[in-house]
């Protein structure tokens, strides 16, 4: 019958959030409204990225951000869109963006209870090449009576109430998880302008022979990292080498690792002693997604990533992220080296 032909059990992000809120009797609806502002930002950024090549938004904006990277026009637009979406939600008190050196404080909303950290367009150096980029976000709830200072964000990632990312690939893929919850993937249906639940309860495979690291940094790697990567490439008698997959856009590499399994690594090394990726809006949010999907994430000292506390809002860290069995191999090699 027609009913069977048409899948009417379509769960939109809006419905999902409403059902999630209903599970928490004490919920005020503030978090739900914050998430609606987030999805608005993702839809808008997705729109501009798809139009970028058409209306020539690619290329340099002629300005540079705090880290000195050449800012692409889309970086600027993505950042402005995200900031205005968070501000107009009326639920965000403070915001950290990779594109902004200083903490952003929304004084207009003294009762706002949330702090957000984000990388509006992560991987933007790949934009002109049409490589998938993404927005990564982390959400903390302000403690009672907190005024909203950067100290409210200099916390272990384990205190996040939610985190996730949106990858702008063939379609916009949103992956979101709440503290202690499951990981759910949504696909933006452009005809309805709705995020549809396409990957409920995502689980990262326990093992997978795929490694994702920039081997161009091998010269700078510490010994344990060199030994670990070589053990994947030269497995010895009868062993089968791992496949190498590296896109150079964290959201794309992380999404593949979440779906297929394997390991993504950006180790701290002699060139970047503190690592390259940022704790607040790259490492910690990704770590919560992977832990909630049954995976693991550690830093270059083999500490649980979600226990690491940044000293400054743009602090960096080394990271090993992915299947439990693959991250455990990294830990075992480091243990052998007394690390
Ligand atoms: P590299 C992109 O610039 C980024 O911040 C992440 O998205 C990505 O994983 C990493 O840097 C790539 O760095 O040094 O391999 O180009």
TrEMBL record:
InterPro entries noted in UniProt: FBPase_C_dom (IPR044015), FBPase_class-1 (IPR000146), FBPase_N (IPR033391), FBPtase (IPR028343), Fructose_bisphosphatase_AS (IPR020548)
Keyword Magnesium carried by entry: yes
GO cellular component: cytosol
SUPFAM superfamilies: Carbohydrate phosphatase
Domain Fructose-1-6-bisphosphatase class I N-terminal: 11-200
GO molecular function: fructose 1,6-bisphosphate 1-phosphatase activity; metal ion binding
Annotated catalysed reactions: beta-D-fructose 1,6-bisphosphate + H2O = beta-D-fructose 6-phosphate + phosphate
UniProt-listed CDD domains: FBPase
Domain called Fructose-1-6-bisphosphatase class 1 C-terminal: residue spans: 204-334
Family: Belongs to the FBPase class 1 family.
Protein name, UniProt field: Fructose-1,6-bisphosphatase
Source species of the chain: Polyplosphaeria fusca
């Amino acid at each position: 019958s027609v009913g069977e032909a048409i899948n009417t059990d379509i769960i939109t992000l809006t419905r999902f959030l409403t059902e999630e809120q209903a599970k928490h009797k004490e919920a005020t609806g503030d978090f739900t409204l914050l998430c609606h502002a987030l999805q608005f930002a993702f839809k808008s950024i997705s729109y501009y990225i798809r139009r970028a090549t058409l209306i020539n938004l690619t290329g340099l904006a002629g300005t540079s951000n705090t880290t000195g990277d050449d800012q692409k026009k889309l970086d600027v637009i993505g950042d402005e869109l995200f900031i205005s979406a968070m501000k107009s939600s009326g639920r965000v008190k403070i915001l950290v963006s990779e594109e902004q050196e200083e903490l952003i404080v929304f004084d207009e909303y003294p009762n706002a209870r949330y702090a957000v950290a984000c990388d509006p367009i992560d991987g933007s150096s790949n934009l002109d090449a049409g490589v998938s980029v993404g927005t990564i976000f982390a959400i903390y709830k302000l403690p009672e009576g907190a005024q909203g200072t950067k100290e409210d964000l200099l916390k272990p990632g384990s205190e996040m109430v939610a985190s996730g990312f949106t990858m702008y690939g063939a379609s916009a893929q949103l992956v979101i998880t709440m503290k202690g919850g499951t990981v759910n993937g949504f696909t933006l249906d452009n005809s309805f302008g709705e995020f549809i639940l396409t990957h409920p309860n995502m689980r990262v495979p326990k093992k997978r022979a795929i490694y994702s690291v920039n081997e161009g940094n091998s010269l700078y790697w510490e010994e344990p990292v060199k030994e670990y990567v070589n053990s994947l490439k030269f497995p010895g008698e009868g062993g089968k080498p791992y496949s190498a997959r590296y896109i150079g856009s964290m959201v794309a590499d992380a999404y593949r690792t979440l779906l297929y399994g394997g390991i993504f690594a950006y180790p701290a090394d002699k060139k970047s002693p503190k690592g390259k990726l940022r704790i607040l809006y790259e490492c910690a949010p990704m770590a919560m997604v992977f832990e909630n999907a049954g995976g693991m994430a550690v830093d270059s000292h083999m500490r649980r990533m979600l226990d690491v506390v940044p000293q400054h809002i743009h602090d960096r860290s080394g990271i090993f992220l992915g299947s439990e069995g693959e991250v455990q191999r990294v830990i075992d090699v480091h243990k052998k080296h007394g690390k």
